[in-house]
Please model this.
Amino acid sequence: QTVVTQEPSFSVSPGGTVTLTCGLNSGSVSTSYYPSWYQQTPGQAPRTLIYSTNTRSSGVPDRFSGSIVGNKAALTITGAQADDESDYYCVLYMGSGIWVFGGGTKLTVL
Amino acid sequence: QVTLRESGPALVKPTQTLTLTCTVSGVSLSASGVCVSWIRQPPGKALEWLARIDWDDDKYYSTSLKTRLTISKDTSKNQVVLSMTNMDPVDTATYYCVRVYTSSCHFDPWGQGTLVTVSS
Model:
């Protein structure tokens, strides 16, 4: 069974830089999985941040960036702000019309 | 501007069938390239992709739930319908419908979601 892995939690200081990752229990993540990232605050629907590995969705600040780092997809937040404190989800496209989400990372800014 | 709005029962009993409707505005479900998915999120847990339907009526389902799911669309009403049979308390979740961009394999925009509780 395919499992998409994310750090359960992460902490960053205001103004700092943090990289969240998105991996596979078996194998490497590549651009062929079209990794995308979503931000969710409590009680709200997710918001699209990054798609196709590194394309920012409309209106997303450029302090958010996506990449492949080693064998994982990565979301980097540069110059973290208080309102970046959220849950972050990655999702990978497995082909044949099927996607699998990661378990999400709870980011704390303090 | 494309918007999606979910509707359906807030409470269903175990073993019942859940039927949810996603009303899409701003784009026609019959237009080439338009696809819609359903995604759910149990309280305090992660997102889970469920199903997708395309403009040409191709359908795709989560491997783990495909025996219980049916996705369909009514182009006259511009609505996508998801049915899930044999509901269980573990199916309690917020259910979202989203537009799918198949060229880049991502979801945007998201509906506001509808919370479904399974309880007797």
About this structure: Chain A has a mean pLDDT of 96. The radius of gyration of chain A is 13 Å. Chain A is about 0% helix and 55% strand. The longest strand of chain A covers residues 87-95.
